[in-house]
Specification:
heterodimer; A: 582 residues; mainly alpha; MetI-like fold; two-stranded antiparallel sheet; 69% helix; globular; B: 438 residues; alpha/beta; D-Maltodextrin-Binding Protein, domain 2; two-stranded antiparallel ribbon; membrane (chain A); transmembrane helix (chain A); cell membrane (chain A); ABC transporter permease (chain A); transmembrane (chain A)
Chain lengths: 582, 438
């Protein structure tokens, strides 16, 4: 790939030596990761390295892993599914991102919000809704069977996993790529246009390469997430993948088997390698651009026909990816829905049933998820800054450790937290019984999302802006506060939304840590309902409430971004370039 | 950063304050759904005024792990769940406290199964039986006949329509498998199980996955515990349920956790569950479990199954808990390696056998018939005998026992390889038979 590079000296760094302040921040972050991730997880996972019977250190369990056909097959299945999902997710995310950021497209914020919703699939009830719509006896296949006597196996085997995961996780690419496209220096595009480039070529050679950090951040998250996701394979009854194997082994009673933890360790190692690989692929290239405040890429106006095509594409993609949510809504309003394309009847009774309980769940969810999102953005931005802008020895380890969290099964985090924090006394009660521990668990588990978003945003910013500020006499702290943070605010927001939204429907770790109904978040309430036939409707109603809640928060954030964007670009209206084909 | 820490500190302080002024409460960890816990909570708080029941809902495995991890500073009074083996695990780890109930009128056994732990660590408060549940719309669309017996599910017509929960993930399914093995013997029992399993559409990873799939029509027939079938009917789903003539009735249990912070409250809860009032709550349509007090059935609706009167419910099978206990992990691992993780291969072999049978029905051929029988034997073959399954060398691999021996992963890989090879040979033989019969 040839890249148009704006600044000649790649990897220019402003800091020649680490300052005491940087050391302090790095140590604080390391301490946090140690307490909130490494130690709790270590107390559980060390079993992987012990010999049966004696408890001595050994690697024989890993030899067993490599010798077991099922696990070797699972590993390849997981890798393949993750790669194919990235391809599918790109196909879904790219058009949406480009149309909403490169063109003057009304409803961009709405599309961005709707395109983000698939990420929020409430546990259990989302699975039921997917099956009722796409499954073997789902709406589509029942209708197809009636009309044409054919069946499309959307939800069968590994291909089914790729389909569902692609629909589920493509927002990671959408949100990070959109942010990156918004922050590209307009002068790059103009320069290319002056030299005669336009249309697809302009996009392929200039625009997309410059947005690469955002794309890679999103794609690597999709890859790692698919790798580590167990809900979807279990929903599709695919058991020969790594994450479900780990989960099935760890959560069975009475089996003191190290293999579950061995698989967890392998998951962590492979996930971190994927991230390292993605960093290596981008090494030696500089994506930073200098111009800021110009509002990024010029937005072209669409001609009527183009408008039609754009709307067609957007509608088609949204219909596909939002079908599960439509099914969820229908499920929450259905009396009985069983082996039929549509429910037998509709009712509001399920909402009435959850009305009393849900207010406490909603408050808790908002509190936990926003606190977790906040912690994640602060930590994510700090780690990204330390890695990209300083020369602290071992700074990469902060990044890798934080990223490892994405691969640790939630139930391992839950058990580890109980082990580590239950013995600590706070005002007469064990620390692990306080809800703040749930926030901590959520924050650690969602940190990778915010971290990748902040990292990508910072990569796109030229260090010369900071140098300029320092040359004018600003201190490091003031530079960060007045220059760096405002410039990467888009990435930080993207990170916050990703962390916040996914934390609000997290269950695995929460289920281990919730102490009472009054401390429980929505996902827990949903779980409780979804254990009985009569609870399916109310569970779906809670699921819809969760989705709507997160959607509103996301939409508000997008409005803020749009407004800020417009304010920045006011007075610098970009030249419209009619004639180029989109 | 500092400001945030201050906020967090404040939050911590306020959370502690709330915790301190809670009223007298009884904390129970349970796997039961809201449909069960809500009515019981209401009735209990009415019967024992001034006490609140704090329900912590966790699945059985998470519940056991939770009680285990928090034993040093236990905050839980009771463990309340279906699977008897979960209570055995807790008891084995010294996490349950002994208690002598004052309730009267409850017999020693329900069906063949003892209601209470003989040593007094946990108590059966309700019973449930295993059976077959099916979706009537699905059955009509796919022209499935109504199943009556376990052996029906092995018929070719049910191919790809049946589901079960993995015994390693569902204590009650484990008991069903164990009952079959004890009722028919090790080899014959596994043969029946694998013949049924050849028709499986899914082996779900949680008990509720089966009724959920039947309710929404993802598969037609499920092997489930009775209250899933009955409560689904009560919720309006087009499903039916039947007890086969050989079934187990297993008690759902409650036990006091060691060092319960509110021991008196815990005892009150057990006494309530076993009292007339507590037993009557079980008859509610959304709960629909079998009371352990025979007198309560007088208040039940007319067609309510009564295991104390109906001999087909459970008493035909002699169940030996010691045999079950000893080999429980081995049976689970065998099922996973031979069925759950080999389902595609097992189904391929089964399909080939069904096709050969169909061909033979049209045109008989002695040589082909012999080949099909060989294929059947290959599918039914077991990598370990009953004696080997209960031997300490085998069971030790699964318990993290102190002595050195085979590791679980080694055994599992060996069994998986055995199953894969046998299923492949069976498929080849059955296909050969089909060719001969044509």
């Amino acid at each position: 790939m040839t890249l148009a590079l704006p600044t000649a000296p790649a990897r220019a760094r402003s800091a020649s030596a680490a300052t005491p302040g940087q050391w302090a921040v790095a140590i604080a972050i390391a301490a946090f990761l140690l307490v909130a991730l490494v130690i709790p997880v270590g107390t559980v996972v060390y079993v992987a390295f012990t010999e049966k019977g004696t408890g001595d250190f050994t690697l024989v369990n890993f030899v067993d892993f490599a010798r077991t056909d099922l696990l070797v097959r699972s590993t390849w299945n997981s890798i393949w599914a993750a790669m194919m999902t990235v391809v599918l997710a790109t196909a879904l995310a790219l058009p949406l991102a480009v149309i909403t950021t490169r063109y003057d497209f009304r409803g961009a914020a709405l599309v961005q919000t709707l395109g983000f919703l698939p990420l929020i699939m409430p546990p259990f009830v989302g699975a039921v809704a997917m099956q009722l719509f796409f499954g073997r006896s789902g709406t589509i296949n029942l209708l197809l069977g009636d009309w044409f006597d054919v069946e499309i196996p959307f939800m069968e085997g590994i291909n089914g996993v790729v389909f569902v995961e692609g629909v589920h996780y493509f927002p990671f690419i959408l949100i990070n790529l959109s942010t990156a496209l918004r922050t590209i220096d307009r002068s790059m595009e103009e320069a290319a246009q002056n030299l005669g480039s336009s249309g697809l070529r302009l996009f392929r050679r200039i625009v997309f390469p410059l947005a690469m950090p955002g794309y890679v951040a999103g794609a690597s998250l999709v890859f790692v997430k698919v790798f580590d996701d167990l809900a979807t394979p279990l929903l599709l009854n695919v058991k020969d993948m790594l994450a479900p194997q780990a989960y099935l082994r760890i959560t069975s009673i009475g089996i003191a088997d190290p293999m579950g933890y061995v698989i967890s360790v392998v998951l962590v190692l492979l996930s971190v390698s994927a991230i390292v690989l993605s960093m290596l692929a981008m090494r030696g290239r500089d994506y930073a651009t200098v111009q800021r405040g110009g509002g990024g890429l010029a937005r072209r106006a669409l001609r009527p026909l183009e408008h039609l095509v754009a709307w067609g594409v957007v509608t088609l993609i949204l219909m596909l990816v939002l079908a599960p949510h439509a099914a969820l809504l229908m499920l929450s309003l259905a009396t009985v829905w069983s082996y039929s394309p549509l429910p037998d009847g509709f009712t509001l009774a399920h909402y009435a049933r959850v009305f009393g309980d849900s207010s406490v769940y909603i408050t808790n969810t908002l509190l936990y998820a926003s606190l977790a999102g906040l912690i994640d953005v602060v930590l994510g931005a700090a780690i990204a800054y330390l890695v990209l802008r300083t020369r602290l020895p071992g700074r990469q380890w902060l990044d890798w450790t934080a990223m490892a969290a994405v691969a640790v099964p939630g139930v391992v985090v839950g058990i580890g937290y109980l082990r580590t924090f239950y013995g600590i006394d706070v005002g007469g009660v064990p620390l692990a019984t306080l809800w703040i521990v749930i926030v901590l668990a959520l924050a650690v588990r969602r940190l990778p999302y915010a971290l990748r978003a902040c990292y990508a945003a910072l990569q796109q910013i030229s260090v010369s802006l900071e140098e300029a500020a320092e040359n004018l006499g600003a201190t490091k702290t003031r530079t960060i506060r007045r220059v760096v943070v405002p410039l990467i605010s888009g990435g930080m927001l993207a990170g916050f939304i990703s962390s916040f939204a996914t934390a609000s429907v997290e269950l695995a770790a929460t289920l281990m840590l919730v102490q009472s109904n009054s401390d429980a978040p929505l996902a827990y309430g949903l779980y409780v309902f979804m254990q009985s036939p009569a609870g399916r409707g109310p569970g779906a109603a809670l699921g819809v409430i969760a989705v709507v809640l997160v959607a509103i928060c996301t939409f508000l954030s997008h409005l803020v971004v749009e407004r800020q964007h417009r304010r920045q670009s006011r007075g610098a209206a970009g030249p419209a370039v009619p004639g180029a084909t989109g | 950063m500092l400001r945030m820490l201050a906020v967090l500190g404040l939050c911590l302080a306020s959370a502690t304050a709330v915790q301190a002024q809670a009223p007298a409460r009884v904390t129970v960890v349970t796997s039961f759904s809201k449909d069960v816990t809500d009515p019981v909570k209401k009735a209990f708080e009415q019967a024992v005024p001034g006490v609140t029941l704090e329900v912590q809902n966790r699945n059985t495995n998470a519940g056991v792990k939770y009680v285990e991890e928090t034993r040093a500073r236990n905050q839980v009074d009771l463990f309340w769940a279906s699977a008897p083996d979960a209570f055995e695990v807790l008891k084995g780890k010294g996490l349950l406290a002994k208690y002598q109930t004052k309730a009267t009128g409850i017999p020693d056994k329900i069906g063949a199964f003892p209601i209470n732990d003989p040593e007094g660590y946990y108590f059966g408060f309700a019973a449930s039986g295993y059976g077959i549940m099916w979706n009537t719309r699905y059955a009509r669309a796919n022209k499935l006949p109504d199943p009556k017996e376990w052996s029906d599910l092995a018929k070719p017509i049910y191919f790809d329509h049946v589901a079960i929960a993995a015994p390693s993930r569902s204590g009650t399914t484990h008991l069903t498998v164990e009952t079959l093995l004890q009722g028919e013997g090790w080899d014959k029992g596994w043969r029946t199980i694998k013949e049924m399993a050849g028709n499986f559409r899914q082996v779900t990873e949680r008990s509720f996955g089966v009724p959920e799939g039947v309710n929404s029509g993802q598969f037609g027939v499920g092997i489930v515990i009775d209250f899933f079938g009955f409560s689904a009917q009560a919720a309006g789903f087009p499903v039916k349920f039947v007890y086969p003539s050989v079934t187990t009735i297993v008690p759902a249990n409650v036990g006091i956790v060691t060092n319960a912070p509110n021991r008196a409250g815990a005892e009150a809860f057990i006494e309530f569950l076993l009292s007339d009032k507590g037993q009557e709550v079980l008859l509610e349509p959304a709960i629909r479990r079998l009371p352990v007090n025979p007198a309560t059935y007088a208040k039940a609706p007319a067609d309510y199954p009564n295991p104390f009167k109906d001999p087909s419910l459970g008493s035909r099978v002699k169940f030996d808990p010691d045999v079950s206990e000893k080999r429980s992990n081995v049976v689970d691992a065998l099922f996973d390696q031979l069925v759950t993780f080999q389902l595609a291969n097992l189904k391929a072999a089964t399909k080939a056998i069904h096709e050969a049978d169909a061909a033979l029905a049209k045109k008989d051929n002695a040589q082909a018939r012999a080949l099909v029988n060989e294929a059947r034997d290959l599918v039914a073959a077991m990598p370990v005998t009953a004696a080997e399954a209960a031997a300490p060398e085998t069971t030790g691999a699964f318990t993290g026992a102190k002595e050195k021996g085979s590791r679980q992963a080694e055994l599992e890989n060996r069994w998986a390889g055995f199953a894969r090879d046998h299923y492949a040979q069976a498929k080849a033989k059955a296909e050969e038979a089909t060719r001969l019969a044509k």
